[in-house]
Amino acid sequence: MSASSGADFAQIRYEVDGPMATVILDRPQARNAFTLRMSDEIVAALRMAESDPAVRVVILTGAGRDFCVGADLSSGSFDMGGDGAGEPGWQEPAGRVSSTIYSLRLPVIAAMTGVAVGAGSTMVLPCDLRVASTDSRFGFVFGRRGISPEGGSPWFLPRLVGLAVASDWMITGRVIGADEALAKGLVHHLHQPADVVDAARILAADIAENTSAVSVAIIRRMLWHASQAPTPDALHAAESRLIAELPGNSDAIEGVQSFLARRAPVFPNTLAADYPSWLDQLR
């Protein structure tokens, strides 16, 4: 695994290994407590991954025992404003991360161990897969800190676990154990702490080796659109437009040919050249 150059990161690490980019929260001495700088560095790393044609999947994880214990409160208060706080167009830090993941054209896998509360729970909600450890704990603890939710969590969480469960977790602000998180659909898989990142890498390798980058980006956009659209009409129209283009779609041709030949596919299309940007209007 090699670290990518071109960015001066202080609170995260960014590493690329073949088709996998790994964004690592790197304040283990502070249990990866979330800061304004960390937020901006995560966003920058995600955009670096998206602009790298070799990268197919992003893994978001944390160094040390815990994924992220939420906002850094070592100063005795919430210090997440920064320049321009409250001005038009300003976005709070956890929301910067979650909205970037939401709009990304690459799939993102969260690999979490230990505590993931506050921003540690909200920033991973738009990830495509969430892998956690058997000792993981989650919490939307905002009411217990006298603050409002962040990271778009009141929008994302009910779409993952349902409104009743989201209401329970957010209104009580209680901490949720790994088994409950798995049972309610917040996480997809549980593993022993030492195995979490390896499990995420296995999932990432499967996606990178067996799927089309453009198809996966299209699927990501359609899934999020379908979760909020009042009817499937716009989705049907988009699907029809895409299906009509299949005879000239190089990835579709390769998908059929590789299936018939019983070999691994080698999809030629790229996100830069072949992603149908008009799909972003479905957001």
From TrEMBL:
Keyword Disulfide bond belongs to the record: no
Keywords, alphabetical: Fatty acid metabolism, Lipid metabolism, Lyase
A Pfam family: ECH_1
PROSITE patterns on file: ENOYL_COA_HYDRATASE
GO biological process: one example: fatty acid metabolic process
Superkingdom, taxonomy of origin: Bacteria
Enzyme class of the recorded protein, top EC level: lyase
Matching SUPFAM superfamilies: ClpP/crotonase
Keyword Lyase (UniProt): yes
GO molecular function: enoyl-CoA hydratase activity
InterPro entries: ClpP/crotonase-like_dom_sf, Enoyl-CoA_hyd/isom_CS, Enoyl-CoA_hydra/iso, Enoyl-CoA_hydra_C
Reaction catalyzed: a 4-saturated-(3S)-3-hydroxyacyl-CoA = a (3E)-enoyl-CoA + H2O; a (3S)-3-hydroxyacyl-CoA = a (2E)-enoyl-CoA + H2O
UniProt EC number: 4.2.1.17
Role this protein plays: Could possibly oxidize fatty acids using specific components.
Family label: Belongs to the enoyl-CoA hydratase/isomerase family.
Protein name per the record: Enoyl-CoA hydratase
Organism whose genome encodes this protein: Gordonia polyisoprenivorans
